[in-house]
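Sequence and structure are kept together here, with a separate record for every protein. An example record follows, reproduced without changes.
>
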Amino acid sequence: MKYSLLTTIIAAIPHLVAAHYTFPDLIVNNTITSDWQYVRITANHYSQAPVTDVTSQAIRCYELDSNSASQSGIATVVAGSTVGFKADNIMGHPGYFSAYMTPASPAANSNQAGLGKTWFKIWEWAPTYSPSTGLVFDSENINQFTFTIPRNTPNGQYLLRGEQIALHLSGTINGAQFYIGCAQINVVGGGSGSPSPTVSFPGAYSATDPGILINIYNLPADFTGYKAPGPAVWRG
């Protein structure tokens, strides 16, 4: 979608037009699982309200409570296969998508999983840019997103973190909206890769990162393209 003067005017209309959402369903090889079957139930499962503070513990997996991990199962996923998340609503907000993984110790359904600097990015879907078109969000108005588990991912249990950073209000600090889901998976048929670089949540993002603090309706004159927050993607 190209953002122009007309879009800027439309942006002034209250943003209640586009609903919020959660990611309750894991997708494995085109099969959509049941709500919260393998995804940790999130604190916004009723309100659908996003996370806006990148320094909060909620930025990791946004769990409802300490029981979320144990109440969800662990899905078996073959390295190199297609996985993803399905939202409970149309994702009408323009934004940036990414997926992270972390080895889960002692297990994927443990509250201790993913607490350290162990997360690595495996996929991203950023808006494109050119001076003639502006920012174009091909990901807008979808209800699911999929990607591939890298073939060289070592076997074992992981948390798989899917995220959209909605950017329609991101022109002010804490205006960006983070929609997050963490699935519990067991990777089989993998390789001997060494995923890197690794980050922690919170810690991976700053509220002033250029991909988080950005007015998509009024880009600066020297803008050259969207700068994704977080680490580089590990391709495996």
